[in-house]
Design a protein that fits this description.
The protein is mainly alpha-helical. It contains four helices and four strands, in the order αβααβββα. A two-stranded parallel ribbon has the order 1-2. β3 and β4 form a beta hairpin. The termini are far apart. The relative contact order is 0.18.
Length: 89
């Protein structure tokens, strides 16, 4: 059984609001939830449903990809974003 914290649930709820083909940043979500971008990244690293909760749509403030499922600069994240038509570096 997967244990999801209240904080992770709040993060996941925000991420689910990001439309297909769009991105947001760890910082933007952190500001909404009054926490740090690093905390957002750590919560998303434990995302048990990576397509249903589209954490691939969350990128770094400088436009670089950041991590995906615990791996930096994932080819999978880049592919998913491109397939959705997101404008990425």
């Amino acid at each position: 059984m997967i244990k999801i914290t209240k904080f992770q649930k709040r993060v996941f709820a925000e991420v689910r609001k990001v439309p297909k083909g769009k991105t947001t940043t760890y910082k933007a979500i952190a500001e909404k939830l009054k926490t740090s971008p690093r905390a957002i990244g750590q919560a998303l690293k434990k995302n048990p449903y990576p397509i249903k909760i589209p954490c691939h749509r969350v990128i770094k403030s400088d436009g670089s990809l950041g991590g995906y499922k615990g791996k930096m600069n994932s080819k999978i994240k880049r592919r998913l974003l491109r397939e959705e038509g997101a404008d990425i570096k």
